[in-house]
Protein backbone atom coordinates (compact mmCIF):
# COMPACT_ATOMS: atom_id res chain seq x y z
CA UNK A 1 0.00 0.00 0.00
CA UNK A 2 2.70 2.48 1.03
CA UNK A 3 4.97 1.38 -1.84
CA UNK A 4 2.15 1.91 -4.32
CA UNK A 5 1.59 5.47 -3.09
CA UNK A 6 5.34 6.13 -3.07
CA UNK A 7 5.56 4.99 -6.70
CA UNK A 8 2.77 7.42 -7.61
CA UNK A 9 4.65 10.24 -5.86
CA UNK A 10 7.93 9.38 -7.61
CA UNK A 11 6.16 9.13 -10.97
CA UNK A 12 4.44 12.49 -10.58
CA UNK A 13 7.01 14.52 -8.66
CA UNK A 14 10.37 12.68 -8.56
CA UNK A 15 12.47 15.74 -7.68
CA UNK A 16 10.20 16.96 -4.90
CA UNK A 17 9.77 13.46 -3.47
CA UNK A 18 13.50 12.75 -3.31
CA UNK A 19 14.23 16.19 -1.84
CA UNK A 20 11.54 15.67 0.81
CA UNK A 21 13.04 12.28 1.66
CA UNK A 22 16.45 13.95 2.01
CA UNK A 23 14.93 16.43 4.48
CA UNK A 24 13.48 13.50 6.44
CA UNK A 25 16.94 11.97 6.79
CA UNK A 26 18.41 15.29 7.96
CA UNK A 27 15.57 15.69 10.46
CA UNK A 28 16.22 12.19 11.84
CA UNK A 29 19.93 12.93 12.10
CA UNK A 30 19.22 16.08 14.12
CA UNK A 31 16.81 14.16 16.37
CA UNK A 32 19.49 11.53 16.98
CA UNK A 33 22.10 14.17 17.79
CA UNK A 34 19.75 15.77 20.32
CA UNK A 35 19.39 12.43 22.10
CA UNK A 36 23.09 11.55 22.31
CA UNK A 37 23.79 15.05 23.64
CA UNK A 38 22.50 13.62 26.93
CA UNK A 39 25.79 11.66 27.25
CA UNK A 40 28.25 14.58 27.65
CA UNK A 41 25.66 16.44 29.72
CA UNK A 42 25.45 13.55 32.22
CA UNK A 43 29.24 13.26 32.31
CA UNK A 44 29.40 16.80 33.72
CA UNK A 45 27.49 15.49 36.74
CA UNK A 46 29.73 12.46 37.16
CA UNK A 47 27.55 9.86 35.48
CA UNK A 48 28.99 6.39 34.85
CA UNK A 49 29.66 5.40 31.25
CA UNK A 50 30.30 2.28 29.24
CA UNK A 51 33.09 2.06 26.69
CA UNK A 52 30.70 2.78 23.78
CA UNK A 53 29.25 5.85 25.47
CA UNK A 54 32.77 7.06 26.28
CA UNK A 55 33.52 7.10 22.56
CA UNK A 56 30.41 9.20 21.93
CA UNK A 57 31.53 11.65 24.64
CA UNK A 58 35.00 11.86 23.09
CA UNK A 59 33.43 12.77 19.73
CA UNK A 60 31.72 15.73 21.42
CA UNK A 61 34.94 16.87 23.08
CA UNK A 62 36.84 16.63 19.78
CA UNK A 63 34.12 18.42 17.85
CA UNK A 64 33.84 21.28 20.33
CA UNK A 65 37.63 21.60 20.48
CA UNK A 66 37.80 21.92 16.70
CA UNK A 67 35.80 25.18 16.93
CA UNK A 68 37.61 26.42 20.03
CA UNK A 69 35.06 25.41 22.67
CA UNK A 70 35.03 23.11 25.67
CA UNK A 71 32.21 20.85 26.78
CA UNK A 72 30.37 22.81 29.45
CA UNK A 73 26.75 23.05 30.43
CA UNK A 74 26.21 26.43 28.63
CA UNK A 75 27.96 25.26 25.42
CA UNK A 76 25.87 22.07 25.34
CA UNK A 77 22.68 24.09 25.77
CA UNK A 78 23.81 26.44 22.99
CA UNK A 79 24.52 23.40 20.81
CA UNK A 80 21.01 22.04 21.50
CA UNK A 81 19.45 25.41 20.65
CA UNK A 82 21.20 25.31 17.27
CA UNK A 83 20.16 21.68 16.65
CA UNK A 84 16.50 22.31 17.55
CA UNK A 85 16.40 25.49 15.44
CA UNK A 86 17.80 23.65 12.41
CA UNK A 87 15.31 20.83 12.99
CA UNK A 88 12.41 23.30 13.14
CA UNK A 89 13.52 24.87 9.84
CA UNK A 90 13.90 21.44 8.21
CA UNK A 91 10.43 20.39 9.40
CA UNK A 92 8.89 23.61 8.07
CA UNK A 93 10.44 23.11 4.62
CA UNK A 94 9.50 19.42 4.61
CA UNK A 95 5.86 20.06 5.52
CA UNK A 96 5.74 22.85 2.91
CA UNK A 97 6.85 20.47 0.14
CA UNK A 98 4.50 17.72 1.33
CA UNK A 99 1.59 20.21 1.34
CA UNK A 100 2.48 21.36 -2.19
CA UNK A 101 2.51 17.77 -3.47
CA UNK A 102 -0.78 17.07 -1.65
CA UNK A 103 -2.50 20.06 -3.26
CA UNK A 104 -1.01 19.48 -6.71
CA UNK A 105 -1.93 15.79 -6.70
CA UNK A 106 -5.48 16.53 -5.56
CA UNK A 107 -5.81 19.09 -8.37
CA UNK A 108 -4.28 16.71 -10.93
CA UNK A 109 -6.54 13.79 -9.95
CA UNK A 110 -9.65 15.95 -9.98
CA UNK A 111 -8.66 17.41 -13.35
CA UNK A 112 -7.88 13.98 -14.81
CA UNK A 113 -11.25 12.55 -13.79
CA UNK A 114 -13.18 15.61 -15.01
CA UNK A 115 -11.35 15.50 -18.35
CA UNK A 116 -12.29 11.84 -18.75
CA UNK A 117 -15.89 12.75 -17.88
CA UNK A 118 -16.01 15.46 -20.55
CA UNK A 119 -14.54 13.08 -23.14
CA UNK A 120 -16.82 10.15 -22.36
CA UNK A 121 -19.51 8.85 -24.65
CA UNK A 122 -22.87 10.19 -23.38
CA UNK A 123 -24.60 6.87 -24.05
CA UNK A 124 -22.00 4.86 -22.14
CA UNK A 125 -21.78 7.48 -19.42
CA UNK A 126 -25.51 7.13 -18.78
CA UNK A 127 -24.89 3.56 -17.61
CA UNK A 128 -22.58 4.67 -14.79
CA UNK A 129 -23.48 5.42 -11.17
CA UNK A 130 -23.68 9.24 -11.15
CA UNK A 131 -23.76 9.41 -7.35
CA UNK A 132 -20.52 7.48 -7.05
CA UNK A 133 -18.93 9.51 -9.84
CA UNK A 134 -19.85 12.91 -8.40
CA UNK A 135 -18.74 11.83 -4.91
CA UNK A 136 -15.33 10.72 -6.21
CA UNK A 137 -14.92 13.95 -8.19
CA UNK A 138 -15.87 16.27 -5.34
CA UNK A 139 -15.01 14.41 -2.12
CA UNK A 140 -12.75 11.39 -2.68
CA UNK A 141 -10.16 13.33 -4.71
CA UNK A 142 -9.82 15.66 -1.72
CA UNK A 143 -9.30 12.65 0.53
CA UNK A 144 -6.61 11.41 -1.88
CA UNK A 145 -4.77 14.67 -1.19
CA UNK A 146 -4.91 13.87 2.54
CA UNK A 147 -3.74 10.34 1.73
CA UNK A 148 -0.53 11.61 0.12
CA UNK A 149 -0.01 14.06 3.00
CA UNK A 150 -0.29 11.26 5.58
CA UNK A 151 2.01 9.09 3.48
CA UNK A 152 4.66 11.82 3.63
CA UNK A 153 4.31 11.98 7.42
CA UNK A 154 4.39 8.18 7.64
CA UNK A 155 7.71 8.05 5.79
CA UNK A 156 9.07 10.72 8.15
CA UNK A 157 8.24 8.60 11.19
CA UNK A 158 9.65 5.45 9.59
CA UNK A 159 12.99 7.19 9.04
CA UNK A 160 12.86 8.51 12.61
CA UNK A 161 12.28 5.02 14.02
CA UNK A 162 15.30 3.77 12.08
CA UNK A 163 17.36 6.60 13.58
CA UNK A 164 16.30 5.80 17.14
CA UNK A 165 17.03 2.11 16.63
CA UNK A 166 20.54 3.03 15.47
CA UNK A 167 21.03 5.06 18.66
CA UNK A 168 20.15 2.17 20.95
CA UNK A 169 22.40 0.01 18.78
CA UNK A 170 25.30 2.29 19.77
CA UNK A 171 24.23 2.09 23.41
CA UNK A 172 23.69 -1.69 23.60
CA UNK A 173 22.84 -4.57 21.30
CA UNK A 174 20.47 -5.91 23.96
CA UNK A 175 18.44 -2.69 23.81
CA UNK A 176 18.46 -2.91 20.03
CA UNK A 177 16.95 -6.39 20.19
CA UNK A 178 14.33 -5.29 22.72
CA UNK A 179 13.37 -2.19 20.72
CA UNK A 180 13.16 -4.10 17.45
CA UNK A 181 11.09 -6.83 19.03
CA UNK A 182 8.74 -4.30 20.59
CA UNK A 183 8.13 -2.59 17.26
CA UNK A 184 7.63 -5.92 15.46
CA UNK A 185 5.09 -7.13 18.02
CA UNK A 186 3.20 -3.84 17.90
CA UNK A 187 2.90 -3.89 14.13
CA UNK A 188 1.98 -7.57 14.09
CA UNK A 189 -1.13 -6.80 16.13
CA UNK A 190 -1.76 -3.58 14.25
CA UNK A 191 -1.70 -5.21 10.80
CA UNK A 192 -5.22 -6.64 10.96
CA UNK A 193 -6.58 -3.30 12.17
CA UNK A 194 -4.89 -1.59 9.20
CA UNK A 195 -6.56 -4.00 6.73
CA UNK A 196 -9.94 -3.36 8.34
CA UNK A 197 -9.41 0.39 8.12
CA UNK A 198 -8.76 0.20 4.37
CA UNK A 199 -11.99 -1.74 3.82
CA UNK A 200 -13.97 0.58 6.08
CA UNK A 201 -12.58 3.63 4.28
CA UNK A 202 -13.65 2.17 0.92
CA UNK A 203 -17.14 1.38 2.24
CA UNK A 204 -17.38 4.90 3.66
CA UNK A 205 -16.67 6.32 0.19
CA UNK A 206 -19.41 4.16 -1.31
CA UNK A 207 -21.92 5.33 1.30
CA UNK A 208 -21.01 8.96 0.62
CA UNK A 209 -21.66 8.25 -3.05
CA UNK A 210 -25.12 6.90 -2.17
CA UNK A 211 -25.91 10.09 -0.27
CA UNK A 212 -24.61 12.21 -3.16
CA UNK A 213 -26.87 10.31 -5.55
CA UNK A 214 -29.85 10.70 -3.20
CA UNK A 215 -29.31 14.46 -2.95
CA UNK A 216 -28.99 14.79 -6.75
CA UNK A 217 -32.19 12.82 -7.25
CA UNK A 218 -34.00 14.90 -4.64
CA UNK A 219 -32.94 18.21 -6.21
CA UNK A 220 -33.86 17.06 -9.72
CA UNK A 221 -37.19 15.52 -8.75
CA UNK A 222 -38.40 17.62 -5.83
CA UNK A 223 -41.77 18.37 -7.45
CA UNK A 224 -42.46 14.71 -8.21
CA UNK A 225 -41.32 13.66 -4.73
CA UNK A 226 -43.64 16.14 -3.02
CA UNK A 227 -46.54 15.40 -5.37
CA UNK A 228 -46.31 11.71 -4.42
CA UNK A 229 -45.69 12.62 -0.73
CA UNK A 230 -42.51 10.53 -0.66
CA UNK A 231 -40.65 12.90 1.69
CA UNK A 232 -40.79 10.50 4.64
CA UNK A 233 -39.63 7.54 2.53
CA UNK A 234 -36.57 9.48 1.33
CA UNK A 235 -35.83 10.64 4.87
CA UNK A 236 -35.73 6.96 5.85
CA UNK A 237 -33.35 6.19 2.98
CA UNK A 238 -31.03 8.96 4.19
CA UNK A 239 -31.33 7.78 7.81
CA UNK A 240 -30.34 4.20 6.88
CA UNK A 241 -27.34 5.42 4.91
CA UNK A 242 -26.28 7.76 7.74
CA UNK A 243 -26.56 4.88 10.22
CA UNK A 244 -24.16 2.82 8.11
CA UNK A 245 -21.78 5.82 7.95
CA UNK A 246 -22.10 6.23 11.73
CA UNK A 247 -21.06 2.61 12.34
CA UNK A 248 -18.12 2.90 9.94
CA UNK A 249 -16.91 6.13 11.54
CA UNK A 250 -17.13 4.63 15.05
CA UNK A 251 -15.18 1.58 13.90
CA UNK A 252 -12.50 3.78 12.35
CA UNK A 253 -12.30 6.07 15.39
CA UNK A 254 -11.88 3.15 17.80
CA UNK A 255 -9.17 1.56 15.69
CA UNK A 256 -7.34 4.87 15.31
CA UNK A 257 -7.27 5.84 18.99
CA UNK A 258 -7.62 2.83 21.29
CA UNK A 259 -4.82 0.51 20.16
CA UNK A 260 -1.98 3.09 20.03
CA UNK A 261 -2.66 4.03 23.67
CA UNK A 262 -2.13 0.43 24.75
CA UNK A 263 1.47 0.84 23.65
CA UNK A 264 2.39 3.13 26.59
CA UNK A 265 2.15 0.59 29.46
CA UNK A 266 3.94 -1.94 27.24
CA UNK A 267 6.88 0.46 26.87
CA UNK A 268 7.12 1.03 30.63
CA UNK A 269 7.05 -2.73 31.24
CA UNK A 270 9.86 -3.22 28.73
CA UNK A 271 11.94 -0.46 30.37
CA UNK A 272 11.54 -2.11 33.80
CA UNK A 273 12.43 -5.55 32.42
CA UNK A 274 15.56 -4.21 30.70
CA UNK A 275 16.77 -2.50 33.85
CA UNK A 276 16.28 -5.64 35.98
CA UNK A 277 17.70 -8.09 33.44
CA UNK A 278 20.72 -6.24 32.02
CA UNK A 279 21.77 -4.09 35.03
CA UNK A 280 22.86 -1.08 32.95
CA UNK A 281 24.82 1.80 34.44
CA UNK A 282 22.82 4.96 35.10
CA UNK A 283 24.09 6.92 32.09
CA UNK A 284 23.36 4.08 29.67
CA UNK A 285 19.91 3.54 31.13
CA UNK A 286 19.03 7.26 30.95
CA UNK A 287 20.11 7.40 27.29
CA UNK A 288 17.99 4.29 26.73
CA UNK A 289 14.96 5.86 28.41
CA UNK A 290 15.31 9.07 26.37
CA UNK A 291 15.64 7.08 23.14
CA UNK A 292 12.78 4.77 24.15
CA UNK A 293 10.53 7.72 25.02
CA UNK A 294 11.23 9.29 21.62
CA UNK A 295 10.72 5.93 19.98
CA UNK A 296 7.45 5.41 21.82
CA UNK A 297 6.04 8.76 20.70
CA UNK A 298 7.23 8.18 17.15
CA UNK A 299 5.86 4.64 16.92
CA UNK A 300 2.57 5.81 18.43
CA UNK A 301 2.22 8.59 15.84
CA UNK A 302 3.46 6.18 13.17
CA UNK A 303 0.63 3.79 14.00
CA UNK A 304 -1.98 6.55 13.92
CA UNK A 305 -0.57 7.84 10.62
CA UNK A 306 -0.47 4.36 9.11
CA UNK A 307 -4.08 3.89 10.17
CA UNK A 308 -4.97 7.22 8.54
CA UNK A 309 -3.25 6.10 5.33
CA UNK A 310 -5.21 2.84 5.36
CA UNK A 311 -8.44 4.71 6.09
CA UNK A 312 -7.89 7.12 3.18
CA UNK A 313 -6.54 4.64 0.65
CA UNK A 314 -10.12 3.56 -0.07
CA UNK A 315 -10.53 6.92 -1.82
CA UNK A 316 -7.68 6.00 -4.15
CA UNK A 317 -9.34 2.65 -4.87
CA UNK A 318 -12.62 4.40 -5.69
CA UNK A 319 -10.81 6.92 -7.89
CA UNK A 320 -9.07 4.18 -9.85
CA UNK A 321 -12.38 2.33 -10.24
CA UNK A 322 -14.09 5.44 -11.65
CA UNK A 323 -11.09 6.26 -13.82
CA UNK A 324 -11.19 2.77 -15.35
CA UNK A 325 -14.94 3.05 -15.99
CA UNK A 326 -14.59 6.48 -17.60
CA UNK A 327 -11.58 5.35 -19.65
CA UNK A 328 -13.74 2.57 -21.07
CA UNK A 329 -16.28 5.25 -22.07
CA UNK A 330 -13.65 7.52 -23.66
CA UNK A 331 -14.36 8.86 -27.12
CA UNK A 332 -11.61 9.33 -29.67
CA UNK A 333 -12.94 12.65 -30.99
CA UNK A 334 -9.74 14.73 -31.19
CA UNK A 335 -7.99 12.77 -33.96
CA UNK A 336 -8.48 12.97 -37.69
CA UNK A 337 -8.59 15.76 -40.20
CA UNK A 338 -10.58 18.98 -39.67
CA UNK A 339 -14.11 19.03 -41.03
CA UNK A 340 -14.28 21.55 -43.91
CA UNK A 341 -18.05 22.05 -43.82
CA UNK A 342 -21.19 20.45 -45.23
CA UNK A 343 -21.64 21.15 -48.93
CA UNK A 344 -23.81 18.41 -50.45
CA UNK A 345 -25.29 15.70 -48.25
CA UNK A 346 -25.07 13.25 -45.37
CA UNK A 347 -25.35 9.65 -46.56
CA UNK A 348 -26.28 6.78 -44.22
CA UNK A 349 -25.15 3.43 -45.63
CA UNK A 350 -26.15 0.05 -44.16
CA UNK A 351 -25.90 1.54 -40.67
CA UNK A 352 -26.47 -0.79 -37.71
CA UNK A 353 -26.02 -0.44 -33.97
CA UNK A 354 -26.40 -3.16 -31.37
CA UNK A 355 -26.40 -2.88 -27.60
CA UNK A 356 -26.66 -5.79 -25.19
CA UNK A 357 -27.78 -4.27 -21.88
CA UNK A 358 -30.73 -4.97 -19.61
CA UNK A 359 -32.63 -5.43 -22.89
CA UNK A 360 -31.19 -6.25 -26.27
CA UNK A 361 -31.48 -3.35 -28.72
CA UNK A 362 -30.76 -3.48 -32.44
CA UNK A 363 -30.90 -0.56 -34.87
CA UNK A 364 -30.89 -0.95 -38.63
CA UNK A 365 -29.70 -1.58 -41.17
CA UNK A 366 -30.55 1.97 -42.24
CA UNK A 367 -30.04 3.59 -45.64
CA UNK A 368 -31.09 7.17 -46.38
CA UNK A 369 -29.74 10.54 -47.51
CA UNK A 370 -30.01 14.00 -45.94
CA UNK A 371 -29.49 16.67 -48.58
CA UNK A 372 -27.75 19.91 -47.64
CA UNK A 373 -30.29 22.59 -46.76
CA UNK A 374 -33.15 20.12 -46.37
CA UNK A 375 -35.48 19.57 -43.42
CA UNK A 376 -35.65 15.88 -42.47
CA UNK A 377 -37.80 14.47 -39.68
CA UNK A 378 -37.82 11.18 -37.78
CA UNK A 379 -41.00 10.09 -36.01
CA UNK A 380 -41.99 6.96 -34.15
CA UNK A 381 -42.66 5.47 -30.76
CA UNK A 382 -40.27 5.85 -27.84
CA UNK A 383 -37.55 3.22 -28.12
CA UNK A 384 -37.78 2.96 -31.89
CA UNK A 385 -34.15 4.17 -32.27
CA UNK A 386 -34.57 7.86 -33.20
CA UNK A 387 -32.32 9.31 -30.48
CA UNK A 388 -29.74 6.52 -30.93
CA UNK A 389 -29.53 7.45 -34.60
CA UNK A 390 -29.02 11.11 -33.71
CA UNK A 391 -26.28 10.16 -31.21
CA UNK A 392 -24.40 8.38 -33.98
CA UNK A 393 -24.97 11.31 -36.32
CA UNK A 394 -23.32 13.59 -33.75
CA UNK A 395 -20.43 11.13 -33.29
CA UNK A 396 -21.30 10.14 -29.73
CA UNK A 397 -21.41 6.45 -30.68
CA UNK A 398 -19.81 4.43 -33.45
CA UNK A 399 -22.02 2.16 -35.56
CA UNK A 400 -21.67 -1.58 -35.18
CA UNK A 401 -21.47 -1.80 -38.96
CA UNK A 402 -22.06 0.46 -41.93
CA UNK A 403 -20.98 4.08 -42.15
CA UNK A 404 -21.99 7.72 -42.20
CA UNK A 405 -20.60 9.70 -45.15
CA UNK A 406 -20.49 13.48 -45.27
CA UNK A 407 -20.05 14.76 -48.83
CA UNK A 408 -18.78 11.29 -49.74
CA UNK A 409 -16.18 11.13 -46.95
CA UNK A 410 -16.50 8.72 -43.99
CA UNK A 411 -17.38 10.74 -40.89
CA UNK A 412 -14.90 8.68 -38.81
CA UNK A 413 -11.97 10.19 -40.75
CA UNK A 414 -12.81 13.67 -39.47
CA UNK A 415 -11.92 15.15 -36.12
CA UNK A 416 -15.31 14.80 -34.44
CA UNK A 417 -14.85 17.95 -32.37
CA UNK A 418 -14.52 19.98 -35.58
CA UNK A 419 -17.63 18.20 -36.94
CA UNK A 420 -19.61 19.15 -33.84
CA UNK A 421 -18.42 22.74 -34.14
CA UNK A 422 -20.63 22.92 -37.26
CA UNK A 423 -23.80 21.54 -35.67
CA UNK A 424 -26.15 22.56 -32.88
CA UNK A 425 -28.33 20.36 -30.71
CA UNK A 426 -31.55 21.09 -28.80
CA UNK A 427 -32.75 18.32 -26.51
CA UNK A 428 -36.15 17.66 -25.02
CA UNK A 429 -34.79 18.27 -21.51
CA UNK A 430 -33.37 21.75 -21.90
CA UNK A 431 -30.04 21.99 -20.11
CA UNK A 432 -29.46 25.43 -18.60
CA UNK A 433 -26.69 26.84 -16.41
CA UNK A 434 -27.48 28.57 -13.14
CA UNK A 435 -26.46 31.84 -14.77
CA UNK A 436 -27.90 34.71 -16.77
CA UNK A 437 -29.96 34.31 -19.94
CA UNK A 438 -27.10 35.89 -21.89
CA UNK A 439 -24.58 33.39 -20.49
CA UNK A 440 -26.89 30.49 -21.35
CA UNK A 441 -27.23 31.60 -24.96
CA UNK A 442 -23.50 32.29 -25.43
CA UNK A 443 -22.70 29.07 -23.51
CA UNK A 444 -19.04 29.88 -22.80
CA UNK A 445 -18.32 30.56 -26.50
CA UNK A 446 -16.30 33.78 -26.64
CA UNK A 447 -16.75 34.03 -30.41
CA UNK A 448 -20.49 34.71 -29.98
CA UNK A 449 -21.05 38.47 -29.82
CA UNK A 450 -24.10 40.45 -28.77
CA UNK A 451 -25.37 40.72 -32.37
CA UNK A 452 -25.41 36.88 -32.59
CA UNK A 453 -27.37 36.70 -29.33
CA UNK A 454 -29.93 39.28 -30.46
CA UNK A 455 -30.39 37.53 -33.82
CA UNK A 456 -30.85 34.14 -32.11
CA UNK A 457 -33.40 35.56 -29.67
CA UNK A 458 -35.52 36.84 -32.54
CA UNK A 459 -35.23 33.58 -34.47
CA UNK A 460 -36.29 31.57 -31.42
CA UNK A 461 -39.26 33.90 -30.79
CA UNK A 462 -37.92 34.58 -27.30
CA UNK A 463 -37.61 38.38 -27.23
CA UNK A 464 -40.98 39.18 -25.65
CA UNK A 465 -40.59 36.97 -22.59
CA UNK A 466 -36.87 37.79 -22.12
CA UNK A 467 -37.57 41.53 -22.11
CA UNK A 468 -40.33 40.91 -19.55
CA UNK A 469 -37.87 39.28 -17.12
CA UNK A 470 -36.75 41.44 -14.15
CA UNK A 471 -33.26 42.03 -15.55
CA UNK A 472 -33.77 41.04 -19.16
CA UNK A 473 -30.80 39.20 -20.59
CA UNK A 474 -28.95 39.49 -17.28
CA UNK A 475 -31.66 37.63 -15.32
CA UNK A 476 -30.38 34.50 -13.57
CA UNK A 477 -32.50 31.52 -14.60
CA UNK A 478 -31.85 29.37 -11.49
CA UNK A 479 -30.67 25.78 -11.19
CA UNK A 480 -31.72 23.97 -14.38
CA UNK A 481 -33.80 27.03 -15.27
CA UNK A 482 -36.27 26.52 -12.39
CA UNK A 483 -37.33 30.18 -12.57
CA UNK A 484 -38.62 29.72 -16.13
CA UNK A 485 -41.48 27.81 -17.65
CA UNK A 486 -40.83 24.74 -19.80
CA UNK A 487 -41.52 26.62 -23.01
CA UNK A 488 -39.25 29.51 -22.00
CA UNK A 489 -36.41 27.12 -21.21
CA UNK A 490 -36.69 25.44 -24.59
CA UNK A 491 -36.74 28.73 -26.47
CA UNK A 492 -33.54 29.79 -24.68
CA UNK A 493 -32.02 26.42 -25.61
CA UNK A 494 -33.14 26.97 -29.22
CA UNK A 495 -31.63 30.47 -29.18
CA UNK A 496 -28.36 28.98 -27.90
CA UNK A 497 -28.32 26.59 -30.86
CA UNK A 498 -29.08 29.30 -33.42
CA UNK A 499 -26.54 31.76 -31.97
CA UNK A 500 -23.64 29.65 -33.24
CA UNK A 501 -25.05 29.73 -36.80
CA UNK A 502 -24.78 25.97 -37.37
CA UNK A 503 -24.71 24.10 -40.66
CA UNK A 504 -26.67 21.23 -39.11
CA UNK A 505 -29.41 21.89 -36.57
CA UNK A 506 -30.73 18.87 -34.63
CA UNK A 507 -33.98 19.26 -32.68
CA UNK A 508 -34.51 16.22 -30.45
CA UNK A 509 -38.07 16.96 -29.34
CA UNK A 510 -36.79 20.53 -29.28
CA UNK A 511 -40.27 22.09 -29.49
CA UNK A 512 -42.14 19.58 -27.33
CA UNK A 513 -42.66 21.96 -24.38
CA UNK A 514 -43.89 24.92 -26.43
CA UNK A 515 -47.50 26.02 -26.38
CA UNK A 516 -49.35 26.06 -29.68
CA UNK A 517 -48.66 29.76 -30.35
CA UNK A 518 -44.96 29.50 -29.52
CA UNK A 519 -44.67 26.36 -31.62
CA UNK A 520 -46.26 28.17 -34.55
CA UNK A 521 -43.80 31.04 -34.24
CA UNK A 522 -40.81 28.68 -33.97
CA UNK A 523 -42.05 26.73 -36.97
CA UNK A 524 -42.15 29.97 -38.92
CA UNK A 525 -38.57 30.67 -37.84
CA UNK A 526 -37.50 27.18 -38.91
CA UNK A 527 -39.15 27.73 -42.28
CA UNK A 528 -37.07 30.89 -42.69
CA UNK A 529 -33.94 28.84 -41.97
CA UNK A 530 -34.77 26.26 -44.64
CA UNK A 531 -32.03 26.22 -47.22
CA UNK A 532 -29.53 28.10 -45.04
CA UNK A 533 -28.80 25.06 -42.90
CA UNK A 534 -29.67 21.39 -42.73
CA UNK A 535 -32.31 20.60 -40.11
CA UNK A 536 -33.00 17.23 -38.51
CA UNK A 537 -36.04 16.93 -36.27
CA UNK A 538 -36.94 14.15 -33.85
CA UNK A 539 -40.59 14.50 -32.96
CA UNK A 540 -43.63 12.95 -31.36
CA UNK A 541 -45.91 15.89 -32.15
CA UNK A 542 -46.64 15.35 -35.82
CA UNK A 543 -47.61 18.99 -36.33
CA UNK A 544 -43.93 19.80 -35.84
CA UNK A 545 -42.91 17.90 -38.99
CA UNK A 546 -45.77 18.88 -41.29
CA UNK A 547 -43.50 20.93 -43.57
CA UNK A 548 -40.51 18.56 -43.58
CA UNK A 549 -39.04 17.62 -46.97
CA UNK A 550 -38.80 13.99 -45.88
CA UNK A 551 -40.34 12.22 -42.89
CA UNK A 552 -38.89 8.85 -41.85
CA UNK A 553 -41.18 6.70 -39.71
CA UNK A 554 -39.24 4.41 -37.37
CA UNK A 555 -40.43 1.24 -35.71
CA UNK A 556 -38.34 -1.33 -33.81
CA UNK A 557 -35.03 0.12 -34.95
CA UNK A 558 -36.00 0.23 -38.64
CA UNK A 559 -37.32 2.85 -41.04
CA UNK A 560 -40.66 1.44 -42.11
CA UNK A 561 -41.91 4.41 -44.18
CA UNK A 562 -40.45 7.53 -45.78
CA UNK A 563 -41.88 10.43 -47.72
CA UNK A 564 -43.43 13.86 -47.44
CA UNK A 565 -46.29 14.59 -45.06
CA UNK A 566 -48.90 14.43 -47.82
CA UNK A 567 -47.42 11.26 -49.33
CA UNK A 568 -47.38 9.45 -45.99
CA UNK A 569 -50.85 10.68 -45.18
CA UNK A 570 -52.11 9.12 -48.38
CA UNK A 571 -49.97 5.98 -48.55
CA UNK A 572 -48.28 5.48 -45.17
CA UNK A 573 -49.98 2.92 -42.97
CA UNK A 574 -47.85 3.58 -39.85
CA UNK A 575 -47.85 7.36 -40.24
CA UNK A 576 -51.61 7.51 -40.81
CA UNK A 577 -52.17 5.39 -37.72
CA UNK A 578 -49.94 7.70 -35.66
CA UNK A 579 -51.83 10.73 -36.95
CA UNK A 580 -55.22 9.20 -36.14
CA UNK A 581 -54.04 8.30 -32.63
CA UNK A 582 -52.75 11.86 -32.08
CA UNK A 583 -56.00 13.39 -33.28
CA UNK A 584 -57.89 10.97 -31.06
CA UNK A 585 -55.79 12.11 -28.08
CA UNK A 586 -54.52 8.59 -27.52
CA UNK A 587 -51.10 7.79 -26.20
CA UNK A 588 -49.07 7.19 -29.32
CA UNK A 589 -46.09 6.18 -27.24
CA UNK A 590 -47.91 3.33 -25.45
Characterise the protein shown here.
This protein is of the alpha/beta class and 590 residues long. It has 21 helices and 10 strands. The protein has helices at residues 2-12, 14-36, 38-43, 51-66, 73-118, 122-125, 130-171, 173-220, 222-227, 231-261, 263-278, 282-328, 386-393, 416-420, 437-442, 450-459, 463-467, 486-499, 516-529, 565-571, 573-583; strands at 345-356, 360-371, 375-380, 401-406, 409-410, 423-426, 504-508, 534-539, 550-555, 558-563. The strands form 2 sheets. A 6-stranded mixed sheet has the order 6-7-8-3-9-10, sandwiched between helices. It has a 4-stranded antiparallel sheet with strand order 2-1-4-5, covered by helices on one side. The longest helix is centred in the N-terminal third of the chain and has 48 residues, at 173-220. It starts with a helix and ends in a 7-residue tail after the last helix.
What's this entry about, in short?
By secondary structure, this protein is α/β, with parallel strands linked by helices.
Mean pLDDT score: 80
Main β-sheet, spatial strand arrangement: 6-7-8-3-9-10
Rg: 36 Å
Quantity of strands, as a count = 10
Through-space gap between termini? 54 Å
What structural category characterises the helix and strand content? alpha/beta
Helical residues, percent? 55-70%
Low-confidence stretches: 585-590
Number of helices: 21
**Beta-strand fraction estimate:** 5-15%
- Name the overall outline: elongated
Please summarize the sheet with the most strands.
6 strands, mixed
Amino acid sequence: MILKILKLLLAGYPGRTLFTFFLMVIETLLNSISIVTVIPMLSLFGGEQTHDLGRVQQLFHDGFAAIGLTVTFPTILLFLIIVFSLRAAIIAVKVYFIAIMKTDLETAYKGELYSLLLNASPMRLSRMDFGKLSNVLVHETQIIGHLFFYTGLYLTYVVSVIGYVLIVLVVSWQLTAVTGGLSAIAYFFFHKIIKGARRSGYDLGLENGCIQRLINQTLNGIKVIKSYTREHALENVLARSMERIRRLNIRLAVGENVFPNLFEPAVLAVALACFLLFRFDVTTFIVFLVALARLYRTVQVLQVTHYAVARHVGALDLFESCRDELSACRMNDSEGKPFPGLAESIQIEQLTYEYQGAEHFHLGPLDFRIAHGSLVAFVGRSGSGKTTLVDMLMGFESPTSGRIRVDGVDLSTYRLRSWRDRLAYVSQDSFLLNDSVRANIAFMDESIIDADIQRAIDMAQARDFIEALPEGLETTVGEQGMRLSGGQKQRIALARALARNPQLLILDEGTSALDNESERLVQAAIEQLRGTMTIVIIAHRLTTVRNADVIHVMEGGHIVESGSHDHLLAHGEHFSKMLRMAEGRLDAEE
